[in-house]
Amino acid sequence: MKKVLVVYWSSTGNTETMAKQVAKGAEDAGAEVTIKTVSEASSDLVKEAAAVAFGCPAMGAEVLEESEMEPFITGLSQAELGGKPTGLFGSYDWGDGQWMRDWVERMKGLGAVLDGEGLITQLVPSAEVLEQCHELGKRLAG
Ligand SMILES: Cc1cc2nc3c(=O)[nH]c(=O)nc-3n(C[C@H](O)[C@H](O)[C@H](O)COP(=O)(O)O)c2cc1C
Predict the structure, then answer these.
(1) Are the CB atoms for 117 and 9 separated by under 8 Å?
(2) Strand pairing partners for 52?
(3) Which of 45, 94, 118, 140 has its CA 20 to 30 A from that of 7?
(4) Phi, psi of 60 (to 5 degrees)
(5) 113 CA to middle of ligand 1, Å?
(6) How far apart are CA 113 and CA 12, in angstroms?
(7) What is the pTM of this model?
(8) What is the band of 6 on the pLDDT scale with cuts at 50, 70, 90?
(9) Vertex 22, ends 20 and 28: CA angle to 5°?
(10) Shortest-distance Cα residue to atom 3 of ligand 1
């Protein structure tokens, strides 16, 4: 069974709701899914997974959350991500998605094989966005 890992950070629950749907999509497609908050995750878990999804809202000024997610991503390298199917997702509010564009480029630079351009939504994910999260999970499991 394919191992899919979902790692997220969320303060008010919007990105968490997305993460749970990504995980459910992968599960529904038959994957062995592990879902962790970033504080519970490790780079070894990333390495062991066949596909990964990371979720983080836009924080600071168009950056990743700085105390947990940013150091976690900084700690990853080609060793964990090289050639690995990877999905990114997250919620934002007043920006235009710059944090996600930057994150996508950064992950490509680490050798990750990105699924699309990152799945973003303003504040609370709609039913349509949750369906897209589910589809992302299914693709990562496939
Ligand atoms: C400290 C802080 C910084 C934020 N910075 C941005 C930002 O730069 N751009 C943006 O679009 N939204 C920004 N937001 C809004 C969050 O991305 C938005 O509320 C998001 O839905 C939070 O997701 P969560 O519920 O998963 O925590 C910020 C929110 C907070 C609390």
Answers:
(1) no
(2) 5, 86
(3) 94
(4) 55, -125
(5) 26
(6) 29
(7) 0.98
(8) very high
(9) 100
(10) 59
pLDDT score recorded for residue 1: 85
Q: What is residue 63's DSSP assignment?
A: B
| Count of domains for the chain | 1
Closest Cα to atom 5 of ligand 1: 59
- Ligand 1 atom having least distance to the Cα of 55: 26
Read off the pLDDT of residues 46-69 as tens digits, 9 standing for 90 and up: 999 999 999 999 999 999 999 999
**Measured from the CA of 94, which atom of ligand 1 is nearest?**
11
Of 93, 121, 124, best ligand 1 pocket probe by most atoms within 8 Å of the beta carbon: 93
Phi/psi region, residue 116 (left: phi>0; alpha: psi -120 to 50; beta: rest), is left
Domain residues for 114?
3-141
Distance of CA 135 to the CA centre of its chain: 13
CB-CB neighbours of 133 under 10 Å: 27
Which pLDDT band holds residue 91 (cuts at 50, 70, 90)?
very high
Q: For residue 59, give the CATH number of its domain.
A: 3.40.50.360
Query: For residue 18, which amino acid is it?
Result: M
